[in-house]
Amino acid sequence: MRTFIARRLLLLIPVLIGVSVFVFALTRVAGNPAAAYITERMGPQQIAAIEEQYHLNDPVYIQYFYWFNGLIHGDWGYSPTSHLPVTDSIVAFFPATFELSLVSIVIAMVVGIALGTVSAVRRNTPVDHATRIMALAGVSLPIFILGLILQNIFAYRLGWFPLVGRSNDLLYLSSDIHHYTGFLLVDTALNLDATRFWDALMHIALPAITLSFGTIAILTRIMRGSMLEVLGQDYVRTARSKGLPERVVIRRHARKNALIPTTTVVGLAFGGLLGGAVLTETIFAWPGLGFWSAQATLHNDSAAIMGFTMLTAVIYVLVNLIVDVMYAYLDPRVRLD
Amino acid sequence: MAKAKPTQTEESKGALDSIKRSLRPRIREWRFSLYLMRKSLLALVGIAIVLSIIIIAIFAPVFAPVPPTPPGRDPMIIPQDFQTPVPPGAPKPADIGGGTFLFGSGPLGTDIYYGVIWGSRTSIYISLYVVALAVVVGLVLGAIAGYYGGIVDEALMRITDIFLSVPALILAMAVVAVLTRSLENIMLALTLVWWPPYARIVRGQVLTIKENTYVEAARAVGAKRMRILFRHIVPNSLSPVLVNATMDIGVVVLVAAGLSFIGFGPPTGYAEWGKMVSDGQTYFLSIVNYNGQQLNPWWIWAFPGLFIFLFVMGFNLLGDGLRDILDPRLRR
User: Which of A196, A322, B100, B236 is the most buried (most CB within 10 A)?
Assistant: First the structure.
């Protein structure tokens, strides 16, 4: 197991270097990368200083070397969009995105596994058909349209939820809250602050539901398929024939085993969540990485684009590695050699 | 007596017969596929949606006639009356066609119905362009990698690793970010990120198929490598590509609309669904006065949104049906 992880980690290095070359090439192919730093008030000397600072007069491969060197030493450049260095921006925006992704993946797992199980157990009944149609709609409905529908009905018309943002700023005028983790739900709970916790929960509800919808659809489908397969296995028949109640057979014997393929999909869905977060955060003005990167791309903020893409690649490949390891851990038949 | 030389017609008749004979199993296969297709309700619904959208796109000038003035106008630019948005059913000025705004009007009085109808052309254009190019590139590279193996294969697979390590939307966003904002650049960016999965699929297929005895037979009779690859191996590895391509037509529209929604697409007024939805978002909290009524203009984003949904759903259903039909393990 340990050698497997070590080898996979080593294999990730060329991939990530490849991503860095690609991303770097992108920002040098078009336009002047200094453009984002130059303002109208700058004179030619200041522009020259900026070009000097970012090594823009050197050959491209030297520039890449400087950039890559900075990358591994924690200097990811400066993002004019957030008025912060890229690394600081990531630190500032990451908790919001992570919290949103986590809540939505929890929603997706609970709903998806339940729907998939019901769908498989009651195969070819109206419940099954309704679930399948919903799952189909889930992968076909653009996430930004679902977001707009939920926002329009539940926030704008009914007023049950706040329209945008992560918290009500008025609640944070006095700074008597200690930020332990950066996750608002956790921090407010740790501070035993019911008002702010409720506020954070209300703010995260709609974006999290929006983001989870596509994942629910995928999970339901996979869960249904693997549940159907497991229900046809001999050990399920044995469990039934020794007179166990159907509920126990499904929960203890069938569902546990059907969950194994589902875990891999959760990992893959995580990549979808990162992509979906860009759109969801844009709709709900959620102050996370996706919102920041969308703004940055619109403003030609190349340092931020490079940083965000690199970060996404790192997270994505690591999550997939964790999923593979977990798979072997959950299913003893899988050997990692 | 010397053998009579067959006449010209006999010869061509013989050739025709042999073609017919060789085609017979294929035709039987297609008939069977069609039969399976007819049995699947969801696939039929998918076909119906897809056909409707194609008909709407082809007959766009019939469904939403281009106003005669000014002469030579670009039909993809939505006609507008430069008024505040009005709800569905409100009267439409005569100079942009007359009648009513079927789906209401959007920013500066753009005709939503017109935009939705002509937008179907944009969506079909984007998705066919991206998927066709991605399939061709993926097919050629994947086939070569799978067939030749070795360093070529290794290098190509590592390149696809790089592309697959970043979600498509984010990679496409990075690409469009450095280009100027236009529909063409969205298509370019999507093509650039869309081919690697196809290369992977084709490579996998080629790896299994090249071990088949008929490939060995072709090699034994002295067929050239390229001929074996593109005449014997590639045609037999196409069904998963076809299934994926069908579904991807919908997904490309989804991602393109997303990029357009964020703000990388064409300017307001162009018949493109994603942009029309994002226009609707700018009116999200506003109220328009219409005949003394206070209305929130939901129609600006709802109708183009509905069409994106139908388009993606149609191709998903069709692709799902195709998979059941083309997968030999799932049929019979």
Answer: A196
Residue listed under structure tokens 């984002």: A36
User: Looking at the predicted complex, does its ipTM rise above 0.95?
Assistant: no
Per-residue pLDDT of chain B (332 residues; tens, 9 = 90+): 444 555 555 666 777 787 777 777 767 777 777 777 666 777 888 889 999 999 999 988 888 777 776 777 788 888 777 777 777 877 777 777 777 777 878 788 788 888 899 989 999 999 999 999 999 999 899 888 888 888 888 888 888 888 888 888 888 888 887 777 788 888 888 998 889 989 988 888 888 887 778 878 888 888 787 788 777 787 777 888 888 888 889 889 888 888 888 888 888 888 888 888 888 888 877 788 877 788 888 888 889 999 999 999 999 888 888 877 776 555 54
What is the residue type of B57? Answer: A
* Whether B34 contacts chain A with CB within 8 A: no
Fill in the DSSP letter of residue A246.
H
Whether A246 and A236 have beta carbons less than 8 Å apart is answered as no
Continuous segment of H or E residues that includes residue B294 = strand B293-295
Token readout for B171 is 């990679």
Global confidence as pTM: 0.81
Looking at residue B288, what DSSP letter applies? E
Domain borders along chain A are 2-85, 88-330
Give the distance from residue A317's alpha carbon to the nearest chain B alpha carbon, in angstroms: 6
CB B123 within 8 A of CB B251: no
Residues B202, B139 contacting (CB under 8 angstroms): yes
Closest residue to A145, CB basis, from B158, B161, B277: B277
**DSSP 8-class letter at B73:** -
Nearest to B60 by CA among B17, B101, B114: B114
Most B-contacting residue of A20, A24, A26 (CB-CB within 10 A), to test interface: A26
- A-chain CB neighbours of B170 within 8 Å are 274-275, 278, 293, 308-309, 312
Secondary structure, 3-state, A19-85: HHHHHHHHHHHCCCHHHHHCCCCCCHHHHHHHHHHCCCCCCHHHHHHHHHHHHHCCCCCEECCCCEE
Cα A83 from chain centroid?
24
> Nearest by CB to B258, which of A142, A156, A309?
A142
The rounded distance, in Å, linking the Cα atoms of A210 and B22 is 53
The CA R_g of chain B, rounded to the nearest whole Å, is 26
Q: Do A26 and B168 touch (CB under 8 A)?
A: no
What type of residue is A138?
G
Pairing state of beta strands B288-290 and B100-101?
unpaired
Per CATH, the number for A88-330 is: 1.10.3720.10
Q: What SS3 state is found at B111?
A: strand
User: In sequence order, which residues have a C-beta less than 8 Å from that of residue B237 and are 6 or more positions away?
Assistant: B143, B202, B205, B206, B209
